[in-house]
Amino acid sequence: MATMIEENGPSTHQSEVSPSSQARQKLEGLLNKNMRIRMTDGRTLVGLFLCTDRDCNVILGSAQEFLKSTDIFSQGEPRVLGLAMIPGHHVVSIEVEADSLEDTQRFGANR
């Protein structure tokens, strides 16, 4: 790190990371994590986050579909989809599954 003297006093000069680069690194950190995606029609898809694009389309691997339940007693079995593409305009929310985060933290602690 180089220290430069400027009119306002000493400052530390670092190579700054662009916001797009930070966003890319964050997305790369989420790859292969279990994600829960809620869609506009009430369905929820759970699967491994494989990729996305600039239109916010998302590809999930080993995806399962959960239908919106009107009755709390009729949860039903999830439908296995496998590889699924969710159009970005249908995405309401995206969450990382808690167990996926715990696995990552345990892996980092064992290094």
SSE topology sketch:
Blueprint: E1 2-6, E2 9-13, H1 19-30, E3 34-39, E4 44-52, E5 58-66, E6 79-86, E7 91-96, H2 98-109
Antiparallel strand pairs: 1-2, 3-4, 3-7, 4-5, 5-6
Biased composition (Polar residues): 9-24
GO molecular function: RNA binding
Family: Belongs to the snRNP Sm proteins family.
Architecture overview:
With 111 residues, the chain is of the alpha+beta class. It has a domain at 26-96: SH3 type barrels, CATH 2.30.30. It contains 2 helices and 7 strands; from the N terminus they run ββαβββββα. The chain has helices at 19-30, 98-109, and strands at residues 2-6, 9-13, 34-39, 44-52, 58-66, 79-86, 91-96. The strands form 2 sheets. The protein has a 5-stranded antiparallel sheet. Strands 1-2 form a two-stranded antiparallel sheet. Strand 4 (44-52) and strand 5 form a beta hairpin. The longest helix has 12 residues, at 19-30. It is elongated, with a radius of gyration of 20 Å. Residues 1-6 have low confidence and may be disordered.
Structural class of the helix and strand makeup?
Answer: alpha+beta
Q: What's the helix count?
A: 2
Order of helices and strands: EEHEEEEEH
Which strand-content bin applies to the residues?
35-45%
Organism: Cottoperca gobio (Frogmouth)
Family: Belongs to the snRNP Sm proteins family.
GO molecular function, one term: RNA binding
Domain Sm: 22-100
Summary?
By secondary structure, the chain is an alpha+beta fold. Helices cover 22% and strands 43% of the residues.
